[in-house]
Specification:
By secondary structure, the protein is of the alpha+beta class. The protein has a 5-stranded antiparallel beta sheet with strand order 1-5-4-3-2. β4 and β5 form a beta hairpin. The N terminus is likely disordered.
């Protein structure tokens, strides 16, 4: 996990929210200027509001089955055309 320094209000065309939890945490599928995709986790303000970057492989690794993980899997699946 790598810390990022974006503010809560910054959401560019290179980001798409994949999940927003009841406690206010947000996960966004993001892309940097080089085209590298990653998940940006924005913790809720009461947890300190820390913003972290998570590599896709780490985010979807073994044992990762939370609602935020399932939301990203559904998003990826929606990009595949059905026969």
């Amino acid at each position: 996990m790598v810390d990022c320094f974006r503010t809560e209000t910054e959401m560019s065309d290179n980001q798409r929210e994949i999940y927003h939890s009841e406690n206010g945490d947000r996960w966004l599928l993001s892309r940097d200027d080089d085209g590298r995709a990653f998940v940006l986790h924005k913790a809720n303000p009461s947890s300190g509001g820390k913003v972290s970057s998570i590599e896709l492989g780490d985010f979807l690794g073994a044992g990762k089955a939370g609602p935020e993980h399932q939301a990203l899997i559904r998003l990826i699946g929606s990009l595949v055309e059905s026969g």
